[in-house]
Amino acid sequence: MLTMFIKSILILCNLLLISLMLGAQTYVAKGQVSDARTGEKMAFVNITVNGGIYGGTTDIDGRFNIASSERIQTLKLSFVGYNSLEAELRPDAAFLRLSMEPSVYTLDEVVVFPDENPAHRIISLAMQYADSNNPLKLPSFRYKTYDKMVFTIDTSRVAVLDNKANNKASGMKAREFVSQRDLFLMETVTERSYLSPGQTHDKVLASRMSGFSDPVLVFMISQLQSTSFYDEMILISDKKYINPLSRGSFRKYLFILQDTHVTQSGDSVFTISFRPALNTNFDGLQGVISINSDNWAIQNVQAQPYRQEKGLSISIQQLYEKTDGRQWFPVQLQTDIQFNDARVSDGNKSYPLLASGKSYLSDIELNPSLTSRDFNHISLDINRNELHRDAAWWIGQRIDSLTSRDLETYRYLDSIGRVARLDRLAGSLASLMQGKLPVGMFDVELNRLFRYNDFEGFYTGIGLTTSQKLSKYVSAGSYWGYGFGDKRAKYGIGLGLGLPGSTQAALRLSYDDTAEESGHIKIWDDQANPFREQNYRLLFINRMDYSKRLFAGFSIRALQHAEWRIGISAETRSTAYDYFFGNQDQAIPDYQSYKLANLHAGVRFAFNEKFAQTEHGLMSMGTAYPVLSFTYTLGLKSTGGDFSFNRFDLILDYSIYKAYWGKTSVAAQMGLISGSLPYPLLYNSPASWRNLTLFAPNSFATMRMNEFVSDRFVYLFLSHDFGTLLLRKSWFEPSIVLHTNIAFGSLAHPEKHHFIDIRTPELGFYESGILFRNIVNLPGSKIGAGVFYRYGPYSFIKAHENIGYKLSLSLGI
Questions:
Q1: pTM reported for the whole predicted model
Q2: CA–CA gap between residue 495 and residue 414 (Å, rounded)
Q3: CA-to-CA distance for 68 and 329, rounded, in angstroms?
Q4: Other CB atoms closer than 10 Å to residue 25's CB: what's the count?
Q5: For position 478, what pLDDT does the model report?
Q6: Nearest in space to 328 (alpha carbons), one of 302, 279, 364, 354
Q7: pLDDT of 272-286, one tens digit each?
Q8: N or C end of the chain: smaller count of CB under 10 Å?
Q9: 662-677: b or e for each residue (b if 16 or more CB lie within 10 Å)?
């Protein structure tokens, strides 16, 4: 009897266990959702199971994988701007392909809530918990990312391409070309390390580009994508937009709670649409955001500028998941860009170029053991020799295998790239970013080809330097040019030796026989790049000196954020105008020549400035902090110079962007000379006045050339760019910028300077102006106009003489 009882208990236990296992069975629905009209995959579609509240969402590829403890019979799909869809599951359906129809949907112009807007409570909680959910607030992290960028034409919107649309390179019709392949395809695998506050290092582990092998395109394209939606300002391309999850957003944004569903873990996910409110004028975003009640974190977001730029139309998508069950972290990113100014024409119609970039994050490590020694100024490290990987390696990195379209893109463009030598084009683009044009083993310096000023007249010449193709560590160069106004040739030669290592230590030896502006304020790395707006004032220089200068120097990057330089020079400086320095009882020569023996030391400090290291050299990625440059010059009379003096030059540049207010920029320059020096070695205030001329930042728009000179000075250039906050119409969106410039200066011994007017701005020089920038937007350039007015102790009696009319011209080079 006891044995029978035990057997009965065991049978009952087995039956109970089987029933529990059957009851705990998990049912899964997998599939992909797309737009019924365009075929585009739809990210973050809300999906609920069997008409209930439980469900999930699609990822950035429109894929879903939903598990349920009950048999899944129906799925209900909903998404803002689309008709809801209810799909029945067949028992044999392994993978569902569902399509949603767009609806005629716009956010209501007027939305009246009986009490508090229910979306505000959720957004408030998301802002309250933002710091705990923001990955950039972690002490450190590390992850690997697989990026895929595709350039193409949107064939889904091209009904028929005319037979006239021939691809000149291949002789194929445009429709046939884009139906089989894309215009460009790039894959990149990168390892990123992060250490708070803001230290990053991206090591490109592999890169593959259709038609190219030069990885400089990795740097260019990496600047287009946004990777965080927790900052107050969201950077998309090169413009900042105000995050709807920021202080004061309830007064500026309209939020509407669109949908709610519950996850398997029991957390609620709230889907909220947002856009700028009526009668507001700021750089805002529109889109849809989903907030998970688990720590009130962003689960996914789709956003695009509410007012798209004329040249670019951009949208971003981001998906967050919980890593290690404790920290929300982005796992999928997508950036879609439409280049409205880059179009493919079929003869009768034209279609914009499109780019779509997707990033998939994996191997996420939270708070790994990283220290400051693991980071330096190089934020993006691209070593061409380490990027090539075999096919088996790539298979382990991709989320999906390459499609037949991808394979055809690689095959076709790689063959074209070899024939057309497209890498030379990529190298040329990289060199142009540095003001050079590659020709074989040499680089042509663009700033040496031509220039114009009122002293030299039209100048033309040639400047060549050896490129890194010839040597990575040794560089040599020379230049020669002729000014048709002063009828004099200028020339120079230089030799450089770079030392290996991350410090960028380098030795430099040079000789120059050239002309320089009298009283020119030396600026760190000052180059006469004709494309920089600051150098437009060089057109008006009418007083120069001839200089024969031998220089030897050493530079090194140390303490991570600072670049240091030291050097010694021997120079002969000759005036090219009537001038005499000294006491009146001395003999007066026709012109004067001075011998100088100087010791130079300087530092440029830019906190957290990041660089990309490529085979073309370092490329700055900028910094959000002030940039400080300091130079000290010691005149050595004891070693052959005519003067003994100390000279201190300090330059500070800083810009800060405030939400709903715009960007404020400050440029401060200060100088002090201890010792009595002739006019060519003093400070000539940077003037740029003409009745109507180009606007040159960091110069005085109403000050006449050579009007003021000092041996100690303070210049302050203040500007505030409202962008389009003050004036924005559908047909007229200028960027309004207010300027105020101030100068103070003095001179210790004005009586020693003869035959030129000596004036000092001791009482303060003041001018203010307004610029309407970007009135005309052309491909590669933006044109505007403005006016400046001079006031204060040095204003003119006749009002019209205090006015300077300006044209602003910015070139996208």
A1: 0.81
A2: 38
A3: 25
A4: 10
A5: 95
A6: 364
A7: 999 998 888 888 899
A8: N
A9: bbebebbbbbebeebb
